[in-house]
Please model this.
Amino acid sequence: MSMVQISNVRKAYKDGFEALKGASLEIHEGEILALLGPNGAGKTTLISTICGITQPTSGTITVGGHDVVSDYRGARSLVGLVPQEINLEPFERVMNTVRFSRGLFGKPKDDALLERILRQLSLWDKRNNRIMELSGGMKRRVLIAKALAHEPRVLFLDEPTAGVDVELRRDMWEIVAGLKEAGVTIILTTHYIEEAEAIADRIGVINKGEILLVEEKTALMNRLGQKELRIELHESVEVLPGALADRGLRIEEGGQVLVYCYDTAQDRTGIATLIREVSDAGLVLRDLQTRQNSLEDIFVGLVSKQEEAA
Model:
C-alpha cells in the first residue's frame, strides 16, 4: 500500500531556479526509504514540500490519501519531521517542549508515552532542563522526541546523524527499527551512505532536482554492483605485457597490483582465463582478493553519469 504518493512535482522560485523538476515517487507503508544525493540535490526541498513547509509549483502529493495542499491538516497530522537545523526555544524545558509538540496536533495528554520516548532517547534525566543547558547532541535528541510525540505514521529524518555522537546514532537506529516493526513509514536522507546500506529497504537517488533511480536495495546492488579482482604480483610492473593489453586491467599501488572489474550477473566472469593469461605472460601471483562495489560506488557512478550527460 502506498503511504506517500508524489506525482510530477515541480518547485520553482521567482528567479527561475528549479529545485524539483517533475519528481515522482511512491513510498510504501512500513518501508524505510533512503534518499541519497549531494548537497543542493533537492532532498530537503522534497521533504519540505511533502511536509507542507513549502508548496509545490505544480504536481500533487498525498500522505495517507490526504492531499498536502487541499487537506493540509489531515496530511500533516500523519507526519513527523526531524529537520537538519536545530531550532528550539532555548528557555523552555525539555518535557514542556515535547508535550507542547504533541498538543499542537490535538493529541490528548499522555505523559506515559512521552516518558517512554524520552527514556529511549536518554533524555529522561534531562526532562526538567532548559534547552539552552543541553549539548548539541542532546538538542538533536529533543528534535527526535518532538517528531515522535504525536505518534506519526510517516517519519522524515533529514540528515539526522550529521555531527552527532556514536551513542545517539545507535539509539536512533534502534528506535527506527522499532518504528518500522510498528508499521511506521520512514524516509531518511543521509550523507552516511553506509547507514543507508545497513538500514534501508529501498534506495532513491536524487540530483539537480531529478529522481534518478528508486530501487530495492539488494536488487540495485546486484544489478549495478560490480566486483573487483585484485591481483597482487610478486614483482611490480610498469606496463602491461602485450598479451594483457586489451583485458581492461588497471595497474595500481606502484605496479604491484592489477585490478580487473567484472559483473557477477554474467554467466562467465573471465577470471579463470585471465589468471592463466597473467601466468603465461610471465607474471608471478602473490595473492588474489575480490571486492564488491559498495552503495557509495553506485551512488557516485549514477551522479557522475548525470553530470556527464548535462
Summary: Residues 166-181 form the longest helix (16 residues).
